[in-house]
Design goal:
By secondary structure, this protein is α+β, with helices and mostly antiparallel strands. 36% of the residues lie in helices and 28% in strands. It is globular. It binds one RNA strand of 76 nucleotides through α1, β11 and α10.
Length: 475
RNA sequence: CGGGGUGUGGCGCAGUUGAUAGCGCGCUCGGUUUGGGACCGAGAGGCCGAAGGUUUGAGUCCUUUCACCCCGACCA
């Protein structure tokens, strides 16, 4: 009996592959309205693992989880000019409620800066009231013209952190802290490598002085903006009047940051690690880390399986036994493979006799024989190794697909042949960026912040430039 | 918003020049099976996206409309 092909090829039919994998792995389904998805328990469990990874870090920093209203009076949203300008094309607005036309329309939050800062203004009088640091895990709505499950949906889940500080330095430190957290989460949980840097003027968040971003490179060669952290300066604190008296008795406006990571990250996870056999989950985000699949469901096998499950669970490995006896062995294996389970244990008469299991890693298909005595240590180590290897894989993809261009011709040639990241010296200029985008469909992703004071020439104008940028096509 | 596509059992689809709505998968029941998506038998389930029109007769033709998907443009 041969293995049945369940998915379209990732390489040849990326769009079909992506949507099929989401359904087959039981992550999500389409909702009834445009661009909406239903996140099913298996998909939501991944989101919960992300939350579980981030919450301790957020709380450790002194940022408290909170909840602000879903509906924002239009007038609040209009207080910061560039903010409303940026978001107005994609707002969903409530104009009728309780059968009556509302005097003032209510906007379904596209992000919560305005409603939160309106409240912050009431809570801040003295420098002693600062910093204010709050986060919310919530949903936001942005009416995008073109949607894809997880990557860009009309409604999505995220966390949005919002802080107000007495000094710019403190705000900058917080902005950086948030980005470090995102990098840590992406590297160590998602096993996704990427590039950290600042956004160009054109790509910056509406209302921010500076936007820092984590840009991941997907196997297709397209970039995914994976998380952002904004330095809002005093752009919101002034119109919202978040002001306080300093120690010296002077009046000052607060310095602010906001930062977010959304369910888009799950889309990035699928794209980065998935293959033609289905989803591949890094152990640290996998809702189930080991599945024990038995061949015959005999009493001996069941006893052995339960024994193993207990051992693994006592070692904090999330384990499940597939107890269905109405499905055949091969069917069950495929079912779990498509769901991306990091390690599958197989138990049949042979294994019972030898007190060993045959185990297979989803990520690289490696098979091992594991004896029951050492199963906990071996599995723990193996899961760690898989996690590490998956990140290494992502890093290799990033390194291999980051190329340098010194002039526009080279740039265009790379974008049209290899895609991926293109590193160039460039002086940020929105008009030029617009032109590049028109001609190549690539845009700036970020300005590399940890480059070593190199000086080069702007790849378009030839003028001196000390700033290095990553350009790419993006999702 | 532009281009393309699709709406027919839960899912995937077929349905010819208009004439009693079909197939595969899945599902239910029974049985045989079980080391990489098994098989046999018997069943259940759809007024064909919606509205209007033409016709003796419409899944099929005409008009209108709605929704979703894909590709662009747009987009923290």
């Amino acid at each position: 009996m041969t293995k049945k092909k369940l998915l379209p090829s990732k390489k040849d039919f990326p769009a079909e592959w992506y949507t099929t994998i989401i359904k087959l792995a039981d992550l999500a389904d389409y909702g009834p309205s445009k661009g909406s998805i239903i996140i099913k328990p298996y998909g939501y469990a991944i989101w919960e693992n992300i939350q579980n990874a981030m919450n301790p870090i957020i709380k450790q920093k002194g940022v408290g989880n909170s909840y602000f209203p879903l509906l924002i009076p239009m007038s609040l949203l209009e207080k910061e000019a560039s903010h409303i300008e940026g978001f107005s094309p994609e707002l969903a607005v409530v104009t009728i409620a309780g059968n009556e036309k509302l005097e003032e329309p209510l906007v379904v939050r596209p992000t919560s800066e305005t409603i939160m800062y309106n409240a912050y203004a009431n809570w801040v009088q003295s420098w002693r009231d600062l910093p204010i640091m709050m986060n919310q895990w919530n949903n936001v709505v942005r009416w995008e013209k073109r949607t894809t499950p997880f990557l860009r949906t009309s409604e999505f889940l995220w966390q949005e952190g919002h802080t107000a500080h007495a000094t710019l330095n403190e705000a900058l430190e917080t902005q950086k802290w948030a980005m470090d957290m995102y990098k840590n989460i992406y590297n160590n949980y998602f096993a996704i490598d990427g590039c950290i840097g600042n956004k160009s003027k054109a790509e910056r968040f509406s209302g921010a002085d500076e936007t820092m971003t984590f840009e991941a490179l997907m196997p297709s060669g397209k970039a995914l903006q994976a998380a952002t952290s904004h330095n809002l300066g005093q752009n919101f604190s002034k119109p919202f009047n978040i002001s306080f008296q300093t120690k010296d008795g002077a009046d000052e406006f607060a310095w602010q940051t906001s930062w977010g990571l959304s369910t888009r990250s799950i889309g990035g996870l699928i794209l980065t690690h998935g293959d033609d056999d289905g989803l591949v989950l890094p152990p640290k985000l996998a809702p189930i880390q080991v599945v024990i699949v038995t061949v015959n469901m005999s009493d001996d096998e069941m006893r052995f399986a339960n024994e193993l499950k207990t051992i693994l669970e006592n070692g904090n490995i999330t384990t499940e036994i597939d107890t269905r006896d109405d499905e055949r062995f091969g069917f069950k294996l495929n079912k779990w493979e498509v769901k991306g389970i990091p390690i599958i244990y197989k138990i049949g008469a042979r294994e019972v006799e030898n007190k060993k299991v045959t185990a297979k890693a989803r990520f690289n298909k490696e098979e091992r024989e594991i004896s029951i005595e050492t199963s906990l240590n071996e599995t723990t180590k193996w899961l760690d190794d898989i996690q590490t290897a998956m990140l290494a894989n992502s890093s290799r993809n990033l390194a291999e697909n980051t190329r340098t261009a010194t002039n526009y011709d080279e740039f265009k040639s790379i974008i049209s042949t290899h895609k991926g990241f293109v590193k160039v010296f460039w002086n940020d200029n929105s008009e030029i960026e617009e032109k590049i985008k028109k001609e190549t469909t690539a845009s700036s992703r970020c300005m590399i912040i940890d480059h070593h004071e190199k000086v080069g020439k702007d790849f378009l104008t030839g003028e001196p430039s000390s700033t290095e940028w990553i350009f790419a096509q993006s999702y």
